[in-house]
Specification:
261 residues, mainly alpha, 2 domains, 12 helices
Length: 261
């Protein structure tokens, strides 16, 4: 009985992921021709994985090298069930994969670097939203500011790590503003944002991270600033707030979609 189309597709998919899987009768012609065709498709699939993941994780690729990264992409693509057609979403699970990938066990910081990179990747395509600006904030009565609940812009992400992930990422950017740290074991806090449609990574002090984390958890502004000062007595709200507004970290209040009213 001839194979059903579904069964043929299942066998083809299995042969793409495993060179040892049977590939007979997947194409017309001799088995050697079929094996060569499947190998070509398998190679193209692996190349697409490496390209898509390399676009999302250029720093990780630079850290491990092209050949290692290609092998990592093959293993991840084979083991990770990616059910979406958009290759831009392929790498969502890579940081957790890297964290348990045996050959990188001696480099535990790479998983957190990958988590930061995924936030950068997501920020490029995050939804637009009307950002809170200084003029909008100025019309809010001073006595109401403490109770103001802000929402982070969709492009914003916060990271905290026992590794110097911010410096590692920044050191791999064009005209790198900081050198690659000699010792990666350094506590760090990083902010991903998208001011004026340009994705940026900012290094944060502990107090500033505490404030933004409190805002992300829906605490009112007054409580967030108090958390910052408790964490870092040198935290200065008058310095931080204008920078946050300039970076477009918040959605304008009372506009559920983020669109101006």
């Amino acid at each position: 009985m001839p194979e059903t189309l579904a069964r043929l597709q299942q066998r083809f998919g299995a042969a793409l992921l495993d060179a040892a899987a049977p590939s007979d009768r997947l194409f017309r012609g001799p088995d050697a021709h079929t094996a060569a065709c499947v190998a070509l498709y398998r190679g193209n699939l692996a190349a697409n994985w490496a390209k898509a993941l390399g676009n999302a994780y250029p720093v990780l690729r630079a850290l491990v090298g092209e050949d290692f990264f290609a092998a990592l992409a093959r293993r991840f693509g084979r083991d990770y069930a990616h059910v979406e057609g958009d290759l831009n979403t392929l790498g969502a699970g890579l940081p957790d994969f890297v964290a348990t990938f045996g050959p990188l066990a001696d480099h535990p910081y790479m998983a957190d670097v990958a988590r930061l990179e995924w936030s950068v990747h997501r920020a490029h395509s995050a939804a637009d939203a009307h950002a809170l600006d200084a003029a909008t904030l100025a019309v809010i009565a001073a006595e109401d500011l403490d109770g103001l609940t802000l929402r982070l812009h969709p492009a914003v992400a916060l990271h905290e790590s026992p590794w110097a992930i911010d410096a590692i990422w920044l050191a791999h950017q064009p005209a790198a503003p900081v050198p690659l740290p000699a010792e990666p074991r350094q506590d760090s806090r990083a902010l991903v944002c998208r001011p004026r449609w340009r994705v940026a990574v900012r290094s944060l002090r502990a107090g500033e991270h505490a404030a933004l984390a409190a805002i992300a958890a829906a605490h009112p502004l007054g409580e967030a600033l108090e958390a910052a000062i408790t964490t870092d007595p040198d935290f200065d709200p008058a310095d931080a707030l204008p920078r946050w507004l300039a970076d477009g970290l918040f959605i304008a209040p009372d506009t559920p979609t983020g669109e101006p009213t």
